[in-house]
Please model this.
Amino acid sequence: MQRTSADHGTWWLWPTTASTAAGSVGGVNLAGTPAAPLLRVERLSVRFGGVTALDGVSFEVEAGQVCGLIGPNGAGKTTLFDCVSRLTRPQLGRIELEGHDLLALEPYQVAALGLARTFQHLGLFGSLSVRENVMLGGHHACRAGFVAAALRLPSVRREERALRRRADEVLERLGLAHLAARPAAGLPYGTLKRIELARALGAAPKLLLLDEPASGLSHGEVDELAEVIGAVRGDGGLTVLLVEHHMGMVMRMSHKVVVLDFGCKIAEGTPAAVSEDPAVIQAYLGVPA
Model:
């Protein structure tokens, strides 16, 4: 088991579609040297007044991995997500996505690098159709300006057709095609969770941040969602950073797990190793009787 981000040999045991396609197998490129991580978080620190939400957190995520991020409420998990997606600016640290310094970018620019996320609380537009909600996920790729959109120029219509095709493909993949024309309002909560996932996938991301996707779902819906995420990740070589309190889902899906407590990283390792770590058991999983 590992507690620092300096040595990542353990994680090279899981080859993925994405890493193999990129000329590497299990985190090692074909030349025999370690492949660069897709996401690198270094010494990340965030303070809100006198409260330290993150304190020098570092870890890496290889392309094609699912990395579970766990910890008790208030551990700093969502704050870390907000830093990666550029909704919060840390006081210290560095975040890189494929070598790009995310902190040097404006928040609206990170989607173009291949980053998408979901939120704990649904942010769908109830008055829009399911298809239109998913199309919103891909609007960052549109190049038409305000005047071209107002005049409905041919380039605008081509972009809209491409967005629609992408949305329909994602909805079909997630078993939601029959709801494409339905307004999002009034649909079951489990379905809305899947639509939020579809909207994030509509951005064609390389890195997908999932913030408690199983929250509020039944056990059957959790299992179904885990299967969908696993299938989508396997199809496209997607890399996933997952915050989730449903430990069965995290341990089943994750290649590695990072554990936070009071803003500090207290463990990092395989699901099996993390679940047996005394510090993790005491802080989060519960001390055996």
